[in-house]
Write a structure and sequence with these properties.
With 322 residues, this protein is an alpha+beta fold. Helices cover 36% and strands 24% of the residues. The protein is built from eleven helices and 13 strands.
């Protein structure tokens, strides 16, 4: 579901006032945070979706990494996961489901967490994901609401997974050509989050279905700032431009673009750059706002992290492209 539709669906629902809720839905953060004590809180999220690659084991890895990413984006440590699966038992052999569950389990164990149960249903369309619970120190977590003018914007993974996975599904790209994107999607954001916490960073989000600009708009709104992006510095996955040129554009990209139309000063960005910045990502990287004096140390700890812009005082638009 696009960000505009989601906001309209949630608007009539009253938010419960509870002092134990440290982070709720108001800031569109990546997960909810519920305080247990001054030093300890639970961080919780859920995510599931249909296959974006043909290999069931890889799909399980990617879906699990995507769900775990919300915990990392808040600065949390994953503890437990519950499996969510919808499976067409009359269309696919159960060995496919087993392979998906094995891929997901591998990533959960890599994160140091445990799968403690789950729920399955029979459905016409295959879907898989996780509900994840982690722990977090509420005094030093990452949120959408902590960006400050003068800070640098850092992106930890290249963009373009939506274009590549769509091209792969349509048979316009081979598995070998899509392998850099597949590897990126099944890579956990654990190192990127850990380095941020160790250096004292306080603002982050992960880049998933709303695209880079959709998630960036949540930081800008929650922090009451404007984010300015240098389009030339944004890393692009191999094959992403070619997939876009072949027309492999996910349906969610149009919804993201419509939501952002009045929030972005697009400058003179080329058509591909505009499309890339609203491309729905799966298991994308973290977007962080951090003091510039931390950049050298952070990039030494997180290979591939790119400086893609900066935070400026609030302007008429939430997001600026240059």
């Amino acid at each position: 579901m696009g960000p505009g539709d989601l906001m309209r669906a949630l608007a009539p629902l009253p938010a419960r006032q509870d002092p134990r809720i440290v982070v709720g839905r108001e800031t569109f953060d990546d997960a909810g945070v519920f305080r247990l004590s001054d030093e300890l809180a639970l961080v919780q999220t859920v995510d599931f979706f249909p296959p974006i690659v043909d290999d069931p084991f890889e799909f399980g890895q990617i879906a699990a990494a995507n769900a775990l990413s919300d915990i990392y984006a808040m600065g949390g440590e994953p503890l437990t996961a519950l499996t969510i699966a919808a499976f067409p038992t009359d269309k696919l052999p159960l060995e496919v489901l087993t392979a998906i569950l094995q891929g997901g389990q591998e990533k959960v164990h890599e994160a140091g967490a445990a799968i403690v149960g789950g729920h399955t249903v029979v459905d016409e369309e295959l879907k898989y994901g996780l509900a994840v619970t982690g722990r977090i120190d509420p005094r030093r977590m990452l949120t959408n609401a902590a960006a400050l003018p003068g800070q640098a914007l850092v992106l930890t993974k290249a963009l373009g997974t939506g274009f590549v996975s769509t091209a792969l599904k349509r048979g316009r790209m081979t598995h070998a050509e899509a392998s850099p994107a597949i590897e990126a999607m099944r890579t956990l954001n654990a190192r990127a989050a850990r380095a941020a916490l160790e250096l004292g960073v306080r603002c982050a989000t992960d880049i998933t279905g709303f695209g880079l600009l959709g998630h960036a708009s949540h930081i800008a709104r929650a922090s009451d700032v404007t984010l300015r992006f240098d389009v030339s510095q944004i890393p692009v996955l191999p094959g992403a431009r070619e997939a876009w040129q072949a027309g492999a554009i996910p349906a969610g990209a149009d919804r993201n673009a419509q939501y952002l139309e009045e929030l972005v000063d697009w400058g003179d960005a080329e058509d591909f750059s505009k499309a890339l910045l609203v491309d729905p990502q799966t298991s994308g990287g973290l977007l962080l706002a951090m003091p510039r004096e931390l950049l050298v140390d952070y990039r030494a700890r997180v290979p591939g992290a790119a400086v893609v812009g900066d935070v400026v005082p609030r302007e008429s638009r939430l997001l600026l492209l240059r």
